[in-house]
Fold this protein.
Amino acid sequence: MLRRRDVVGESTVGIAKCPSGIDGLDEITGGGLPRGRPTLLCGNAGCGKTLLSAEFLVRGATRYNEPGVFVTFEETATELADNVASLGFDLNGLSRSRKLYIDHVQIERGEIEEAGEFDLDGLFVRLGHAIDSLGAKRVALDTLESLFSSLPNETIVRAELRRLFRWLKEKDVTAIITAERGDGATLTRQGLEEYVSDCVILLDHRVTDQISTRRLRIVKYRGSLHGTNEYPFLIDDLGIAIVPITSIGLSYEASSDRVSSGLSALDAMLDGHGFYRGSSILISGTGGTGKTSLAALFGDAACRRRERVLYFAFEESPSQICRNMQSIGLDLHRRAKSGLLKFHAARATSFGLETHLATMHRLVDQFTPAAVIFDPISSLTSAGTMSDVYSAVMRLLDYVKSRQITVLCTSLGQRDASVEPTQTGIASLTDTWILVKNVEANGERSRQMCVLKSRGMAHSHESRGFEIASNGICVH
């Protein structure tokens, strides 16, 4: 578990840090990579080593005015630029402005075997010239296997590896060196890089139940406190986002401000003033009881206060939600067009739980909403086990509440239950729990709502009947 002093903005006592500029990485490393030292980045093919290395250089050049040198032994400069362009990285533009230098070094196995000897003097001269001419502060070497694959002599490999890492330290550059994952007990193919590196980062891309998830772990970090857990990370059109979700604790502030539920009769049931700002609300019930309608009223009320709302939909498209809510007098399409309401719709089965969390974190960071809606959060049960879902929702609620964001979740209840459980079992985590249900009497079905709990306020204990009509929801 991360300690509070590991987060960004709270310096740690130890070695100098070089901020990576990669979302989440600086938090779990306590400020960035070791400045002036090499970092080993290892993992299997397709886990994101090259992309992370490229983003490290791009963020350094664009955010921190630190030029970088990228030495690639596999891809040409053109291929590398084309591959990372999908992330919005303009390597060619950075090269023209002399903030980045890309050097493709082609290793010919036949020439090495014919000469019978090999050392890195040529690479040192080439790399040293690039560093000096550019005034580079950051370096990426991708990958070590291509550099040493032609050498059958393990003694030479080990000697040259040590010399490479020592030379990079002497040049006082912050370096990322990528390596393929080892087959046995070692993290890498050679088994030596992980010992001579000051920082070792392991990337992993695994598939469970046909759902893939990328994860990152700091294996070691000399001279610095760091997070030691596995952290999910996401690669999208903005680059890499790492989710340090296990760093969230129970130290966030509780607001005394109140916000409307969007329904005056429900506000009256909540001590007359509605929900606490920054609290978590659960609306549970079986299908057709009005959960989404209540969630939409809450979101519309926030938009009327000129507050931003982020709406995560797991079962319906944004267009369908907007069309359906028109039947109760809500124009959510107009709210979305104004920029106050943002929808993100995705099936729960599209990704693993950790990827969903990474996506949610990134969208919350980008949109900075005052309120978040998850409709329905119970859909996540199809993406993992009950214990995994409970853990994921707990971390998610802690994250948004730590930012004073009011979060409302709808959840599908179990029709044949003798009490009022939810599919996710998260009722104990939420501050306010509202149950909506259908009641059959005299051959008619009617809807009822009641506040099962609302922490910190004297709420109503009545079950109130309500109707969903063309002008909204009417509570009896």
The longest helix spans residues 154-170. The two ends are 49 Å apart (CA to CA). Confidence is low (pLDDT under 50) at residues 1-12, 110-116, 416-420.
